[in-house]
Amino acid sequence: MTHKVLIVDDSLAQTRQLTMILAEAGDFAVVGTAHTGAEGIKLFEQLRPDLVLLDVVMPVLDGLACLRAIRALDAEVKVILISAVAAVARTAEEAKRLSVHEIITKPYDPDAVRTILGKLFA
Amino acid sequence: MPRQFLEGVLGVQFFGEFLIDRWIINRDQLLAALEYQMNRNERFGSIAVKKGFLTESQIAQLSRRQRQSDLTFGELAISAGLLTKDQVQKITTFQRHNNVLLGETLLRLNFIDEVTLRRELANYREHHRRFFGDEIPVAVSAVSAVIIRAALDLTRKMFQRVADIPIKAGRAVVIAPEEEGIKPTYPVTVATSFSGDDSVHFLLSVSSSLALPIAASLLGVDKPTEIDEMVVDAVKEFCNYICGNAAARVARKGVQVDISPPTHLTGIPAAPSGCQTVAYPVRSTRGGLDLRFHVPLS
Question: Is A85 in a helix, a strand, or coil?
């Protein structure tokens, strides 16, 4: 079964790297990419992915605000927060309160991301 | 531009450049010495493989993991359960006995004699005291200083961890608005703001020879050959790595700040009204860069 993934990150470089990791991991298809939190909410509603890879620091609407909106639409969808500010305690606490499944700090090890993806959909 | 900053830009040097400036060796000799070191000196991972302690794939795995960590390669291997403390010690002892530093290399190649080397090492230490130091000018608030120190340290570490490029930063200089003159600019300039307990603007300008390897590392591709939209975006993301991790570090010290999404600028702007510039003279082994902060006047 192929899992539908939405990437929400303002960085083109980051989106490209995550797409490569997902392709190598197998069983994942990137169905949408958004570069602001607002775009992320819109695409989430349209695409209803199985997994959201979500950055925090983004223009227009940040990742945590985007996550709150996503949770209002879907309490169950799997979300991985991938951000350079993921190690900021209050960001991580808020993300956990909003039931993210994993928190990854940038820069990350692609192998670690692949392992997390594998576990999440085992 | 204050004389003190211009002196700093010229003064922040690696030992080899210092020797060239003092006419002790020439650039060809330095390049020959660096090549000798590159061929002669062995990295931790390669020794570990030769001794049968690690496989090539474990080295690749640890190298990728090192991007996320401030730990040395050996410490990381121990924490991953791949090496014992005793094995790490054997490797570092081997490196100490077999790898040669630049001074020793210059001696071996007969580019310098022992008396001159000893004298120049003492001169370099004196030079270092003059141009290097982590004290921040008093005109900056204590909270700004905490943010600046964290961002500076993370800049050094991210250059090393992400692009394997060492950089050296000299002593910071405060540039008052009326003293700002023409600023050196490189092809890619990015900026991020810290806001919260204090407002600090982080500005980083890098030459092509730094932007391209940063992009190659972030994108996981062979080195791009020219600055394009993707390379600029990669440098913005690199700036995000630095400032995001700096925000996490200062939070552990009780300073709460958010960071803005990085922006791409066409040049380094002067400090806005009510702010001053804290500039660091910085040098890398691969190309030019400019690192400065805009902080509120205190």
Answer: coil
Would you give the end-to-end CA distance of chain B in angstroms? Answer: 20
Q: How far apart are CA B231 and CA B271, in angstroms?
A: 26
Handedness of CA A31, A37, A39, A40 (dihedral sign): positive
Phi/psi for B107 (5° steps) reads -65, -50
Contacts of A85 in chain B (CB under 8 A): 244, 247-248, 258-259
Reported as a single tens digit per residue, the pLDDT across B140-172 is 888 999 999 999 999 999 998 888 898 988 888
Nearest in space to B220 (alpha carbons), one of B45, B73, B75, B60: B60
Domain spans of chain B, in order of start: 15-130, 134-296
Q: Are strands A51-54 and B200-206 parallel, antiparallel or unpaired?
A: unpaired
> Can you tell me the ipTM of this complex?
0.92
Q: Which domains occur in chain A, in start order?
A: 3-120 (3.40.50.2300)
CA dist., res. A79 & res. A94, Å (int): 13
Q: Which CATH number fits domain B134-296: 3.90.79.10, 1.10.287.630, 3.40.50.12160, 3.40.1550.10?
A: 3.40.1550.10
Task: State the pTM of this model.
Answer: 0.85
Nearest CB partner across the interface for B234, out of A13, A57, A106: A13
Amino acid at A11: S
- Please judge whether B161 and A110 are an interchain contact, meaning their C-beta atoms are less than 8 angstroms apart: no
What is the least distance, in Å, from the CA of A110 to any CA of chain B? 8
Q: Are strands B200-206 and B289-296 parallel, antiparallel or unpaired?
A: antiparallel
CA distance B175 to B234: 29
